[in-house]
Amino acid sequence: MKSKRIALFIAALTLTATLVMGTVAMTACGGTKTIVLNGSTSMEKVINNLMNAYMEDHEDVRITYSATGSGAGITAAKEGTADMGLASRDLKPEDGTDVTATPIAIDAVAIIADADNAITNVTTDQLNALFVNGTAIADTTITHGVGRDSASGTRECFDDAIGIDTDYDQSAQQLSSNNAVVKAVTGDATALGYVSLDSVTSDVKIVAYNGVVASSEAVVDGTYTLKRNFNLILPAGGYDTLSDVAKDFYDFCLSEEGQEIVVASGNVAVK
After folding, report:
1. For the chain, N or C: smaller number of CB within 10 Å?
2. Burial of residue 87, with CB atoms counted within 10 A of its CB: 0-12 exposed, 13-18 middle, 19 or more buried
């Protein structure tokens, strides 16, 4: 049964996020138990796959997820408007000590260009100059970057790795989701972007970063360094403050079956 379920999720990795307005989990009418999740747009694929697998085995549970961004997910966990937040970056000192993070997956941030673009490799210095100064990449058709908005955990990972601590050049597009970045790069010979590895489609190509192409294998062996954690964000008090059903879903995400779904979703397992 388990292998059949995993196979189904491998065949259907693009699931639509369910948007919801609500507060902390409670037992609804008819005995239905609910879990409210809020946060990272980059985690949409893996969290939807985990949610659907869990609800398939727990017909009395309804899990909802709002794809609002990593910053909003951390805030939701702090304020108690979600049982758990989702963040595609690790916590920073300014996030405070009233939340904790548990990695459930590891993601590579891939550099992408249009599928027909001839570019094959880009360096840290070239990316920094492109996004900060709008400097075209020599001997290529690339003249501008396509990145994420300031609320994005993907952007924070990229900026930290590339050494960007300022605003992007006005030539750089700043978009609200990985899918929007893929769409903007597709068909544009002048654009270079960055997205989660599991968001890459056949419309774009992965460009090597410092000579290494983003892949799960390269993350595991340590040769690809542009990577980050996908985290569950827990409120003050951590695991012990969760409802029983939220604890069970948390445990499921880190279980053998949950980690198989992580891998099937295009990410790297943490266990």
Report:
1. N
2. buried
